[in-house]
Design a protein that fits this description.
With 569 residues, the chain is an alpha/beta fold. It is built from eight helices and 32 strands. The mean pLDDT is 96.
Length: 569
């Protein structure tokens, strides 16, 4: 079994102890990660006995959970733990937070309903003040049908293999408690307004707010947008200079620490009239790599904060300035590291829907054939309830990640996997966020909308042609070159799009690819690239790093020289 060095060093009594929400930090905080009791049942009744201990927040299918068992369709996974609040902890209200639970969760505190939630990638909370006793019992029930339902699932598949990975379930992000006053900051939405040298804050709450930014005090009412003018030199955020503004925010007796960055995204023309992606009003090439965010010992959950940081720092050392987070939503700390280290993010929405038709999801790669995405049956989207659920979760994802400075692009659909009504789903995004660009259908099936023309090219040579509709052209997946490192692969399988026997051959292949196809295309108008991929994942051995993160297949500086792009600004 593959392990990471961070997994081997894991403190199972207190894993992932860091405050999990860096843009809304309070000093009242109890981390509930660590050993919980667990049990599997065949029906919805709570178990009379529990089977043992599971290490939260690792899925039961992962090695780091200490369980190693798959939650199957029709089964239920139960968690239980005791909670005694420290004396003086409760300042008025007590909130219970879950970073993410896959897929459907119901929570009881002392036998009484606290909260129910569906959506395996998104945070949820409950005010448990009225349910508390001197000693408390938290009980969680989880169900997850993986690919047997319409729910969002990303790359999980009950029969894993190739580009589809081990199914997982249950609690996979941090669980924590915090106390707040009766009147508190329920939410915070931050919009940098770079052209106006200002930041807009919207505080969900009642009363007067006080923000302190760079030593300057601002007062404004909660419940409505407040545009705060920044004085002095405005520090623009870029991957090369990731300047963050730290600030405090007070509402009555509630105080939080947060941050923002001054940057803008868009599409515009370069000096030759070619449509380009813009950063802070200027053409900027997004030189990216696909990032699945999977771990051999933790599956969806990185074994430590340092492990999260390692992937981002290594990608940056390899010359990439963007990560495309592929059909997965990460923990808030991952985005924080991208914010502070300087890494752009293209954020995919996890895919869902029914069974995918090979002709629909594969043929466009070979034929260039595109379909209208209102043909719900062809795209595995017959369920109206499933379509409503997807759009609701898409909106929820955009709201949850809205404040992250690093996110430059929203990607609601990938390669036709459960795609439907892309134009309406883009409108759902725009109803919340008009500050970022949107790739409405990564790779295919292009509906001819928006500002981005998105291509995936694996089997043919890429030759750039301008988009007939005048959109900005991005190569949102390519490469996928495979190189096995013995002793660092999950099994004997080796999925990829072109195989190389040694790292030296891999480097030659990459140089040929970038010299012969990519850099010439950039000069002609290609505005972004996403190489597949950062790390190996299970059967896929097309990463620049092995799955266990112990071997870099190529030296970072060699990769950086290979992927360096011409300056078109």
């Amino acid at each position: 079994m593959l392990t990471t060095e961070w997994g081997e060093a894991l403190d199972r009594s207190a894993p992932l102890p860091e405050y999990p929400r860096p843009q809304l930090v309070r000093d009242s905080y109890i981390n509930l990660n660590g050993p919980w009791e667990y049990a599997f049942t065949g029906d919805m009744r709570a178990p009379s006995e529990f089977e043992g201990e599971i290490v939260v927040p690792f899925a039961p299918e992962s090695a780091l959970s200490g369980v190693g068992r798959t939650l199957r369709g029709g089964e239920y996974l139960w968690y239980r733990r005791k909670l005694v609040l420290p004396e003086g902890f409760n300042r008025g209200r007590v909130l219970l937070h879950f970073g993410a639970v896959d897929q459907t969760a119901r929570v009881w505190v002392n036998g009484r309903d606290a909260v129910a939630h569906t959506g395996g990638y998104l945070p949820f909370s409950a005010d448990i003040t009225e349910l508390l006793e001197e000693e408390n019992t938290i009980l969680v029930r989880v169900s997850d049908d993986t690919d047997e339902s319409w729910h969002t699932r990303g790359k999980q598949k009950s029969r894993r293999g190739g580009i589809w990975y081990t199914p997982l379930s249950g609690i996979w992000q941090t669980v924590w408690c915090e106390s707040v006053p009766e009147q508190y900051i329920r939410g915070l939405f931050i919009t940098p307004r770079l052209a106006e040298r200002a930041v807009e804050l919207f505080v969900d709450g009642e009363g007067e707010c006080r923000a302190v930014i760079d030593g300057e005090e601002y007062r404004f009412p909660a419940g409505q947008p407040a545009v705060l003018e920044l004085h002095g030199r405005v520090r623009e955020w870029t991957p090369e200079a990731p300047e963050l503004y730290r600030f405090s925010l007070t509402l009555g007796e509630d105080r939080v620490e947060s941050y923002f960055a001054m940057r803008s995204f868009g599409v515009g023309e370069d000096r030759d009239g070619v449509k380009r992606l813009l950063l802070n009003g200027k053409p900027y090439f997004h030189n990216g790599v696909l990032d699945q965010g999977w771990w051999p010992d933790g599956l969806y959950t990185a074994p430590s904060d340092e492990a999260l940081e390692f992937d981002i720092q290594t990608a940056k050392a390899m010359g990439f300035n963007m990560l495309r987070k592929h059909v997965k939503v990460e923990s808030a700390r991952w985005y924080y590291h991208c914010d502070r280290l300087g890494m752009l993010v293209w954020q995919d929405m996890p895919n869902g829907g029914g069974k995918y038709s090979p002709a629909v999801v594969s043929a466009p790669l070979l034929t260039g054939w595109h379909m209208r995405d209102d043909k719900y049956g062809a795209f595995g989207r017959k369920s109206e309830r499933g379509r409503r659920e997807f759009t609701a979760e898409l909106r929820e994802m955009v709201l949850a990640l809205y404040n992250c400075p690093c996110i430059a692009m929203w990607v609601p659909f990938n390669e036709g996997w459960g795609q439907f009504d892309a134009e309406q789903n883009v409108e759902a995004i725009l109803s919340i966020d008009q500050t970022r660009t949107i790739d409405h259908a990564s790779g295919w099936h292009d509906q001819g909308i928006g500002e981005i023309k998105s291509l995936h090219v694996y089997f043919d040579e890429y030759r750039h042609t301008p988009d007939k509709r005048g959109r900005c052209v991005v190569l949102s997946e390519f490469g996928g070159y495979t190189c096995r490192v013995d002793g660092h692969a999950m099994n004997e399988k080796a999925f990829g799009y072109k195989k190389f026997k040694s790292p030296s051959e891999l480097r030659t292949g990459l140089m040929t690819l970038y010299d012969g196809q990519i850099r010439p295309a950039v000069r002609k108008g290609l505005s972004a690239t996403v190489y597949t991929q950062l790390t190996d994942v299970e059967d896929e051995l097309n990463g620049l790093i092995t799955y266990d993160r112990r071997v870099l297949k190529l030296a970072p500086d060699a990769v950086a020289r290979t992927v360096r792009m011409p300056d078109f600004r």
